[in-house]
Amino acid sequence: MAVKTRSKKRKRTPAAASVPYLPEEMVVEILARLPVKSLLRFKCVCRGWRAIISEPSFIRAHLRCSVSRRQQEPSILISPHFSHDQPTKFSTHISFYQWEQGGPSSLARFMDARDFPVGREFSIVSYFTHCDGLVLAPTDTKLYLFNPATREAITLPDGHGNNHAAGLGLDPSTGKYKVVRSFYRSSMDPPISMGMEVFDVGEPGARWRETATDPPHPITRWRTALTVDGGYLCWFMDRLRYPDAPRGLLRFSLQDEAFTVTRLPDSLDPAFDEVLPYVLHGELCVTHITDDHTAVFIWTLSSMDDDAHLDYGPWELRYCICVTALCHPMGVLPDGGILLWACRTVHRYDFSAGLTPVCNLDRLRYQGGRPARWKNVFDFTLMSYTESLVSITAA
């Protein structure tokens, strides 16, 4: 008797859903709005995405989106300074945390940390400076350059190493970043003349090179330059040791590497008054506290590209704030308020509510906890911050 076997019927599977196609332009638009941390992971998705994210045009587009976002929600980069076992030296550790206005007010997100070799301790730490996601950390032994978002870091080669004042900025004519550093040509006191040298970031085999002309006036020792929109660096001139120097700021163009002088408002004199220069949304500003320490005035210079204003500049008195300590402007809020840093606290100021503390650096919760070295924190450096994919290493 024949046995009938049941033939197995293949199950019909529904047609695979077609993957929607996104034009490359749309992919770029989406990726440009993502944080750096996500983009670094997405480089591993496929070769196409890796190529897109590595393109200079994409890096510039992403930076524009980051700048636009930070105009709505300012971000502050915090770097604690640690003392060393030796009383005259600081730690070889540098770390970065990010605090965002509009985010959790009590939390600072960990960005990056570096421990440098023993023997490179520094006894002087100048103010750090920021430009397009890059951070320059000047010390008396070395200059360090970071991108905390991508966790790139380099130690710049030695140059003239005496009492320098450094700066970092973008040359708008080439799209390249430069580190600039002053040095004294003589060890006499007072020195006879000052020189300036430039390091081209990301260039293969880059070395320090001197500018074609020397600064016309010496600048204040150890004062980090201010990075101003348009491709300029600005320093205070050393009028305490050189009273004949003009009452103002020495301006250095990163494009033609020429020097000019921008004078301050008539009522200010950095040699004798409590005056603090800063940059607010790319504009040069100076803060000045009154003699009785009851108010701070903030002046802004709206443009540095107008040669007609090189001598005295179109300065505008923008804010008058009732505070008792000189403060750093950190950012302008969309509603017209302003963030100020003074006495280890970030404050919010607006005309209706006055001054309100929003972030205490000592009480802030730092992501990852506080290691044992935090007991030796003696100060903080704060700077307005915009993350980017800009690379500091040679391609």
Describe this structure as you would to a colleague.
The chain is mainly beta and 395 residues long. Strand 20 and strand 21 form a beta hairpin. It folds into two domains: 30 residues, no CATH class; 324 residues, Neuraminidase, CATH 2.120.10. The protein has a five-stranded mixed beta sheet with strand order 24-3-2-1-25, with no helix packed on it. It has a four-stranded antiparallel beta sheet with strand order 4-5-6-7, with no helix packed on it. Strands 8-9-10-11 form a four-stranded antiparallel beta sheet, with no helix packed on it. Helices cover 10% and strands 36% of the residues. This is F-box domain-containing protein. InterPro entries: F-box-assoc_dom_typ3 (IPR013187), F-box-assoc_interact_dom (IPR017451), F-box-like_dom_sf (IPR036047), F-box_dom (IPR001810), SCF_F-box_component (IPR050796). It holds the Pfam family FBA_3.
